[in-house]
Amino acid sequence: MKKNTRRLAVVAGAAAAAFGLTVAPASAVPSTVWTVTPTGPYTAKNSGNIVLTATIPMTCTTSGASGTMASTTGNPATVATIAAINFGTATSPCTSVLGNVTTVAVTPWTVVAQDYDAATGVTKGHIGNVKANVTAGACKFTVTGKASGTYTNSTGVLAVNSVSGDLAVSSNPAPVNCGSVVTTATKPLFKGNYVIKASNGAVPKIVGSNP
Asked: 38 and 24, same structural domain?
């Protein structure tokens, strides 16, 4: 019995050691340190048209946003919040074949960093926590999800370029007066460029590094 107990102890110890060797590298990977310069308030203004496509394109010639940027640690990590974002104005509304489009964002949204290329100064990530109530003519629906994008330090451009599946049409509330044009099976797309400026007028820099 003692021999069997010793053998079990040896086997258990070997298994534990092997498991430790297996998991140690994963747990040892450091989080990314994201350095934002300068931190604090920012504003954003569209450069070119902003387009939300939910079967039909809805185009905005005017769009802007504001929020706060901050350094942080993690991967993925939130490097900025979007406290307010507008699509179109009373004098320059967004348009579609269904009529003028009104989009009311439910904020805050987030700017999430996931990958940094030091050679190009480009951060890849997404706009997160997206929720917006859209009215196009008589059609009303709610969009939720995220929108993939990149931020380029040299230009200060946040390029939103969502892919199919990033965003969804909510079933609660479900689309109203949209027929088969916009349904809960529709996969919206959100595309457009925003130029970011810090409160002092500087172009913010986002740099990711591993300690």
From this structure: no
Residues 9 and 52 in one domain: no
Model pLDDT for residues 48-78, shown as the tens digit of each residue: 999 999 999 999 999 999 999 999 999 999 9
The neighbouring-strand residues paired with 143 are 132, 169
pLDDT digits (tens, 9 = 90+) for 139-184: 999 999 999 999 999 999 999 999 999 999 999 999 999 999 999 9
Give 18: exposed, middle or buried? Use CB within 10 Å, 0-12, 13-18, 19+.
exposed
Predicted model pTM? 0.85
Q: In 3D, which of 111, 124, 109, 82 has the Cα closest to residue 208?
A: 124
26 and 45 fall within a common domain:
no
The set of residues, in sequence order, having a beta carbon less than 8 Å from that of 95 and lying 6+ positions away, is 58, 59, 101
111's CB contacts (< 8 A; 6+ apart) are 67, 69, 78, 79, 80, 81, 82, 125, 127, 128, 151, 158
CB 60 within 8 A of CB 87: yes
Asked if residue 112 lies in contact with residue 78, where contact means CB atoms within 8 angstroms, the answer is: yes
Count of domains in the chain? Answer: 2
120 & 17 share domain: no
Domain, as residue range, for 20: 1-30
